[in-house]
Design goal:
Chain A: InterPro entries: CPA3_antiporter_subunitC, NUOK/Mnh_C1-like. The complex is a heterodimer of chains A (147) and B (169). Chain A is mainly alpha-helical and 147 residues long. In chain A, 78% of the residues lie in helices and 0% in strands. The longest helix of chain A is centred in the first third of the chain and has 33 residues. Helices cover 77% and strands 0% of the residues of chain B. In chain B, helix 7 packs across helix 8. Classes of the chains: A mainly alpha (147), B mainly alpha (169).
Chain lengths: 147, 169
């Protein structure tokens, strides 16, 4: 009975990190879906991204391990445990790619603002609808003349 | 948590600053998880460059957000369902810090064991990044280059058009 409780508690603690990152991830997701402002959406995307990064890094953590860097004199003590360096490498790449996509998104926002005069999603949709309606009207007028 | 503050605040300036704080805090967390290289990059790129880019965008656009017009119930529901599914997915995962987890027993010991003889660089992350997974890094630089070209194309038109508008006036 006691053993089972200890195992449950260990399971709970051992998965706590994953759950915290999922909560963080869902916060970012909520911002992306629910907020109308485009800059806010980008920030939400960044939060989402960062939580995925931390999730990966936490997978690479080894109990009692240190950062995966050898001593400078390269006298390696086989007893020292190093954390998994592979997720670190992958996430290093992902962070840089992430900032590249962020900058592209922000540049797009600047262009959208220039074109539509707004960075709110529903306003942009309204303007787009008007443009589409105008085009349809124009089109039908032209077709009517031909007919 | 700063992330929740980002959800609530309407001032975009504060949002940009809070996202910088968030990046810095996550960098601290990464240090405690032994990922010093990643933390370094996150602090420089996430807290530094991203915030600057964000502020630049705000300078070119507006500084305040309009209150949302539709109800947040449906997004909240979608988010909760997704979160529950993800939590269900983690139940099969190994415990945090478990040395016998599949992630730790596959190629990682190989990298740690071989890189001192083959590469002779103290930092294993650097060795893997530049050597074993060099093609990944090549792809990364290609992505960054493409993004840079894209940003330049999008923004450079802006200045030209502004000048034209001025000439028209």
């Amino acid at each position: 009975m006691v053993e089972e409780a200890v195992r449950d508690w260990e399971f709970f603690l051992g998965h706590m990190n994953y759950w915290l990152f999922i909560v963080l991830m869902m916060t970012g997701f909520y911002i992306v879906v629910a907020k109308g402002n485009l800059v806010k959406k980008i920030v939400g995307l960044n939060i989402f991204q960062t939580s995925v990064f931390m999730f990966y890094i936490s997978i690479g953590k080894v109990e009692g391990g240190t950062a995966p860097i050898f001593p400078v004199d390269m006298n390696i003590d086989p007893a020292v445990v190093y954390s998994n360096p592979l997720p670190h490498v992958l996430i290093l790449t992902a962070i840089v790619v992430g900032v590249a996509t962020t900058s592209l998104g922000l540049a797009l926002i600047v262009r959208i603002r220039e074109e539509y005069g707004s960075i709110e999603e529903d306003e942009i949709l309204k303007i787009e609808k008007e443009i589409a309606l105008q085009e349809i009207r124009l089109h039908s007028e032209v077709m009517g003349e031909r007919g | 948590m700063t992330a929740f503050a980002v959800v609530r605040t309407q001032s975009l300036f504060a949002t940009a600053m809070l996202s910088g704080v968030f990046s810095l805090l996550s960098a601290l967390l990464l240090v405690t998880l032994d990922a010093v290289d990643v933390a370094f990059t996150e602090a420089a790129v996430g807290a530094g460059i991203s915030t600057v880019l964000m502020l630049g965008t705000l300078a070119l656009t507006s500084r305040f957000e309009r209150p949302p017009s539709h109800s947040p119930v449906i997004p909240l529901f979608v988010v909760l369902v997704t979160g529950a599914a993800l939590v269900y997915g983690t139940l099969d995962m190994p415990n945090f810090g478990d040395p016998n987890a599949p992630a730790q027993t596959h190629v990682a010991p190989d990298y740690i064991g071989r890189s001192p003889h083959e590469i002779d660089v103290p930092n294993i992350v650097t060795a893997i990044l530049a050597s074993y997974r060099g093609f990944d890094t090549l792809g990364e630089t290609a992505v960054v280059f493409t993004a840079g070209v894209g940003v330049l194309l999008l923004i450079s038109g802006l200045r030209r058009r502004r000048r034209k508008e001025k000439e028209d006036v």
